[in-house]
Design goal:
Three copies of one chain form a homotrimer. By secondary structure, chain A is of the alpha+beta class. Chain A has one domain: 2-Layer Sandwich (60s Ribosomal Protein L30, Chain: A). Chain A has helices spanning about 50-65, 85-95; strands at about 5, 20-25, 30-35, 75-80, 105-110, 110, 120-125. In chain A, the strands form two sheets. A four-stranded mixed sheet of chain A has the order 3-7-4-5. The first copy, chain A, has a two-stranded antiparallel sheet with strand order 1-2. In chain A, helix 1 (about 50-65) packs parallel to helix 2. The longest helix of chain A is centred in the middle third of the chain and has 18 residues, at about 50-65. Chain A is globular. The termini of chain A are close together. The interface between A and C is medium-sized, with 38 and 31 residues. Strand 6 of chain A pairs antiparallel with strand 5 of chain B.
Chain lengths: ~130, ~130, ~130
C-alpha cells in the first residue's frame, strides 16, 4: 500500500531510508511515542548497542499490539546524543528493518528525558 | 475513536502518555505548529511554570479554533532546554491533559527559536 | 483543501507559518525524510545559504516526484545548529514558500547526522 518515492533529481538516500513514503486514503494510522531503552522489569542497559536493540524490540512490540509490523512503518524520527554511536545504530537498524526503508529523520539532541538514555525512536505507521 | 495501545510486552509508560494511539480512516487531521510562550500582547514570561502554562493554553486555543479539544490529541512532541524543568512540566501537563494520554516524545534540545523560550510543544490531533 | 487555523485568542504567528493546518478525510499523505544539503553529485556546500537553498530544492523535488508541490505542505520541522543562521533561513523559506504557510516547528539541535550539515528540514504533505 505504501508507495516509496526517491526523486531521481535528488541524491540517493544516504542509508536505509526512503526520501518519501506515500500513503493513500483509507489507511488506519498509528502514532508511536518515542521508544526508549527500558525493559519490562524496569532496567536500562548501560551501553548503546543493547539500548538500541531494546528500543527496536519495544517498537516491534508496540506495532504488534496494534496488529502492525515493521513493514507498516511510514516515518521514523531518531533522537541520539552521541555521534560515535552512529555506525552501531545503522547496523542495528538495518537488521530490524529487514529491507524496508521508511522515511527517516535523525538528529543529535543535547539530552533525552533520563540522563542514561542514549537513543529514542518515535514512529508513524499506517495500514490500509 | 482514537484507540490506545499499550503493549503488555513493553514497560508501562513512564508518565501521562500512551505507547501508541491508533486513528481509523475517515478522520480529519490537525497539524499544530510548535506552540511557544508568547501571549496575545507579545509578552514572554520569564519563568518556566508560566511559560509552560501559556504554551498549554495556546495549544488549547488552537485546538478550539479547529473545533477540537484536548481529547483529540494524538501525538505531542515536547522540546525543552533544561532538565530541571521536567517535574514542573509533568505536573502542568497532567493537569491540562485531564486524564487523556496521547502518544508523546520529549527531548532536550540546545535552544529554541528565541533564547528566552524554555519549552515548545507541537501536536497532531484527529477527530472522526 | 487544507484549512488554515490561526486562533484569534493566540498571538499571530511569528513568521511565515500557520498555527494549525487541517486536512479532511480522503487525502493521500506524503511523509518526507529530513532533507539535507547534499547535491546529486555528492557535494555539500560549506556555507549556510547554499545549504539551505539546496535543502529546499531537494524538498521541492521530493514533492514533485509524488505529484505534489509546495502548496501541499502541511507541516515542516526544521532542525538547525546555529542561531546566527535564523535570519537567512527565514529569507530563503519565505521565497520558497511563495506565500503558503504550513504548520512549522523550528529547534536548534546539537548536531545533525554529518558534522558539516547546518540545516535539515522534514515535511508532511497531503493532497485530496
Amino acid at each position: 500500500m505504501a508507495k516509496i518515492h526517491n526523486a531521481p533529481t535528488v541524491h540517493p538516500p544516504v542509508g536505509a531510508y526512503s526520501h518519501a513514503i506515500e500513503i493513500p486514503p483509507n489507511a488506519r494510522w498509528l502514532f508511536i511515542s518515542g521508544q526508549i531503552a527500558l525493559s519490562p522489569d524496569g532496567k536500562v542497559p548501560d551501553d548503546f548497542n543493547p539500548q538500541c536493540e531494546l528500543v527496536w524490540m519495544n517498537l516491534q512490540n508496540v506495532l504488534k499490539s496494534a496488529g502492525m509490523d515493521i513493514k507498516d512503518l511510514v516515518k521514523l524520527t531518531v533522537f541520539m546524543v552521541r555521534e560515535t554511536d552512529l555506525p552501531a545504530f545503522r547496523e542495528i537498524r538495518d537488521r530490524f528493518l529487514e529491507g524496508w526503508r521508511p522515511a527517516t529523520t535523525l538528529v543529535f539532541v543535547r539530552a533525552l528525558a533520563r540522563p542514561q538514555w542514549l537513543i529514542e525512536i518515535e514512529a508513524i505507521a499506517a495500514r490500509a
